[in-house]
Amino acid sequence: MLRFINSTILLPACMLLLTSCTVLQAQDSSALKAVAQKNAIWRNDLQKTKRELYYQLQLNAKWYEINEDMGNIAYNLGSPLNIELSDQSVRFICNNNKIAEIRFFEMSDYKLRINTTNSNIQNGMSITEYKLKMGSTIISVRNERQMMLKSIMNQLTKIQMLTNDLSFNMHGFEQMAIAYKSSPAKPVASEEQRKNIIQADAYAKLYQYEKAISLLRKVIAIDATAYPSAYLNIAILFAETNKLYSAIYNMKKFLLLNPNLADEQFAKQRISEWEIMLQN
Amino acid sequence: MQTGNSDTTINRMNTILLVFVLFCTCTLPANGQSGFPFVSGDQVIYYPKLAGKTQSLESIKLGLQQSLKKVVQIYDFTERKTFNAKDIKNITVLDNRIEIDVKGQRNNLNWLFSNIEDSTMFFFGKQNAGNYVFLPSVANLAFNELDAAQQFADNIYAIQYPNINKVRDSLLQVFKERIKLFKATNKEAEVSDAQRLLLLASDSASRNLDYFESIRICNRAIQINEMAYPRAYANLALLYAHINFFDYAILCMQKYLLLQPEPTDARGALDKLYEWEGLIYY
Questions:
Q1: Which of A143, A169, B172, B245 is spaced 20 to 30 A from A72 at the CA atom?
Q2: Nearest residue on chain A to B272, judged by CA atoms?
């Protein structure tokens, strides 16, 4: 009887276990493949958009002017004589070899919007100027060229979104969050992480947000899922320092690891607030 | 031999503590939160900070040289004289001392770093009356600009800090030995009436936000019997942290953890240590 049970139940059970392990492994590797594929698609898309932006800037070079913001004053460098595109940036070479640059990886928290200024000239006419500011570089156009600037802005916005998606590695994090949620034993914050969390909290109370952010970054670097609240805290600190995109991405990461309903509601409210702030 | 050295260190620490308490008891009741400058009457007590885990002597010297250019008045404890900025001909920061060439003085003023190493520096500002860095038994410096005073205090603290760590370690070592001896006697430590009264008085002073007075009384209570009430060390640590004396706070909290190895609030005590260790860095 026992022999019968062994042969009829135990053997198929072992087989089932083996197959399920193989299936799980296959799922893992297929998930990783999917992340890599999506990232590759994004990278291609990013390259394409950068090239499109470059052609547009090149074609319309005589219709816009470059200004360099130096704090209190903005210097007009005139229309660019040449434009160079690299992986990291787009460079405008202007008169007297003066160079202005838009660095793509510094764009992550720029609030891209067109500002309008009206000025009257002596003969009674008025000039409307549209300006798009990215860091210290300002692209400005006059009167009827507004649509061209809008199109440049749209491309820059797309580049910003793709760069952010890649640098925040949202797809990779989604997979990590699935693994974290499905694992029965959740990782616990190490003593080193705890030290950084406490110190970050102390600095945040002293309004030293940059220092608190760098400490929370260390917490995440040690173990990305051991302390999910690090994402919530860092998001709030980013928002306080007016880095709203970084705040949104980190809050989304927190939601992916989401521990409870109350926090979820809070996080979602903050994200929608920050999105409204970015639109206005 | 080691015990002798430790005793000297303890005596020195006690002297420093006495100066500190004398300095502080003259002040009015005040309010504070660790990390923020501590306001006490018309005085604001700041705290020096470290720029990093390791700082080169060259950068420290440069910082001192830069800040000393902005000093408006100095009082030298050896000469017992006050000198104004216009009297100062030259200031040189050397590897082991600060040398000041002053008009009308035959010899240069010499402030040896070895004399500063064991001092508790006071760095405070007075409302509309400048900013001061007080180096006990060496010098008192006045600055118009808070930034210059902060820069000077930070760099002096960078010189002091390795020694502060050493002194703390040796004090803790001595304390460990005392705990061992005390435990060997198998006696139950009891809080005496006098000690209880002082602890209550200290508590009451801290409730009235008079942290300096509270610290002074708490130290007196501990001196009666240092093993009787471990919680007094934790309270003292919190009081020191309130007025931004983080080095003393860390020492007291570590003593508390030594005396009560498995306290119910061990997690909280350790977290406080992490917080204070973090706050002394920029």
A1: A143
A2: A198
